[in-house]
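Researcher: Next entry in the queue.
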Amino acid sequence: MAWADDLQRALLTRGLSVASIPCKGRGLVTTRDFSPGEVIIYQEPYAASPNKFGVGLSSCDGCFASNNLKKCSACRIAWYCGNMCQKSEWKLHQAECQALASLAEDKKKLLTPTLRLIVRLLLRRKLQDEQVIPTSATDNYNLVNVLESHINDIDEKQLVLFAQMANLVKLVLPLLEIDIREVTHNFSKLACNAHTICDDELRPLGTGLYPVISIINHSCMPNSVLMFEGRVAYVRALVPLPKDTEVLISYIETAATTTRRQNDLKQYFFTCMCPRCMKNSDEGLKEDAILEGYRCKDMKCNGYLLPDSEEKVFTCQLCGFIRDGKEIKMVASEVTLLSENASSCLSSGKYSEASALYKTIEQLQQKLYHPFSIYLLQTYETLLKIFMELKDWEEALAYCRLTIPIYQRIYPAIHPMTGLQFYTCGKLEWLLERTEDALRSFTKATDILQITHGTRTPFMRELISKLEEVKAEISFKLSGGDY
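Model: Structure for this entry, 483 residues:
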């Protein structure tokens, strides 16, 4: 196939190659060395849609920004932050706009981000066939066409839903010849190939289909990371990648037990065989027990507990202390009940009441769970958000600091989540005039995030600027000045 040869030639210029990986199918392999932080590959989406559009909820179609937006006066669906984004999207949106503008208002309400993404995908294909939009070796519908749909693996209920959505696409694009079967396959392809587009702080903005980046396989111990600048996807090396190394990213949240990770990966229809998932039984049990299991009753012991066959007793694997299963279940039930009340207060905006309840939950969880438990981490993160809302910076900083040792335990040394948490810590420390602490936090944040994020985005420029300002403040104070 000529297009496949063209893709290989284009990738070779970037130091990459599509290869057949045993038990995985296609994958991307390096043909040269890559250093940590180096961009391995970047790609514009073949099609993308923001999470928010329409009345009251909107993002720019071009860059997914939420500020200074103006609505398309014709379709009243698309929004743009300025002329640059509007012009960049015009060829595609002109065709989309005609279809959307002709829809009755009740039909417009049926539009979802996924439905709109498929509409834009089909229109882009049509415009490329008509040479209105150019094609390239890394930007053509052939790359979408060969993506795995796993249509034979999905259940009948899901298949019917995809077929119904394909009929809605036909309703939106009545003048386009629609192959219902092909569009049904495309919906299935999105489910296991599309990526959530996030901002620099990992907040979801929309969904995009990146056919070349979709070739990259998953690992729970990835050597690369996928980040976004606007809608452009960037894959950067996290560690040195020698020539002939398979590029691996994570499709899921990896701060979870093996069972939970494997369950999350079911939507992709494969079983992960990475070193972390294939740990021997003792190592796997230990990791899972630390993440989701219980702690020794001796608060000075950081051992993890394993239950007997009926969970009547739990034995500490470090000191041998035996903990009664009934007592554990009783405390766990109390935590569950309190969590329901606390969540209700939080969703109602009753932050003071929620903080008191979550502090009680924290005290119980500290007695119940291992210090590195993800449940305890979730409570710390919730309390951090609550105290940020209450503008109680001292308490917010205290909980931010509590999260960091757990982040460092559950994530690799270079991970965007850890870097962002150091950044939050630094901002709070600087606000509280703890300048030396802020310098340490901003330095650690920069060390991590310049590898995962690069240095060009406004977010990273702001972080580096803050780091330089803190350095200048400390230097001025050491010289005897009063800042």
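Model: Residues 325-347 form the longest helix (23 residues).
Researcher: Noted, moving on.
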